[in-house]
Amino acid sequence: MKRNIQVLLLLFTGVGLLHISLLTDLYLRYVRPGLRPALIASGVLLIVLGAVSAARDGFPFNRPRTDHDHGHGGHQGGGHQGHGHDHSQGPRIAWLLYVPALTILFLAPPALGSYTAARDEAKAKAPTAGDSLFPALPQSGIVELSLNDFSSRAVWDTDGTLRGHTVRLTGFVTPGRHGTWYVSRLAISCCAADATVRKVRVHGATPPPADAWVTVTGTWHPTGKVGTDDASPALDATTVKRVPAPKDPYNDAVATRPGR
């Protein structure tokens, strides 16, 4: 039984990895796009290892036991009769190892969302010496910004380049305290385990359901003293529109350009 678990677990896990990385884009819920080749290679390797193990053991997996399989206890003293015990029997709890493998294959968990964003404190990236001056925004039209860019400008841009501009932000809804809510994004360096939060408080609009993806259009709402940690990113919303979730939920990169 224990051998069966090992072989099938390799096969299921390998098929699951290929399912989310080769046949679909589900892997983007967990890792950066650049790791796709590594996931595909890992899936192929696990399937090959499982197939080799299965072929070595023969089919069906539980081979008929021979006299040799009964151990050496049959012709030795009673003190060694324990050698006839079937050591292939593993703990029944080992079957639980199938749960994560089958989950990846049939029910891929969603990307991180409002639960994570609500429990982590967002920190706007402070400009380095080379980034001390934020580029000017287009003079006309709605400017589409990433949450990271908007947050950095709202907190650290003492020149006030956001002032007088209508901007558009896209992210998922994160409920806050006392009826407040945020449009949020999560950024990752490698995988979902190292996710960091970007969120902007939205004023003047009724919040959609938690985790709903939205595009919020509005103007900068100054909060706190810009250039210090007292400032926080906020937006006075004019419109809130539901949008489909992106394939890559962690990619917040947006070219600064006038919106349509």
UniProtKB/TrEMBL annotation:
Coiled coil: none annotated. It holds the Pfam family DUF1980_C. Keywords: Membrane, Transmembrane, Transmembrane helix. The keyword RNA-binding does not apply. The keyword Kinase does not apply. Residues 162-250 form the DUF1980 domain. It comes from the Bacteria. Residues 60-88, 224-260 are annotated as: Disordered. The chain crosses the membrane at residues 39-55, 93-112. This is DUF1980 domain-containing protein. It comes from Streptomyces violaceusniger (strain Tu 4113).
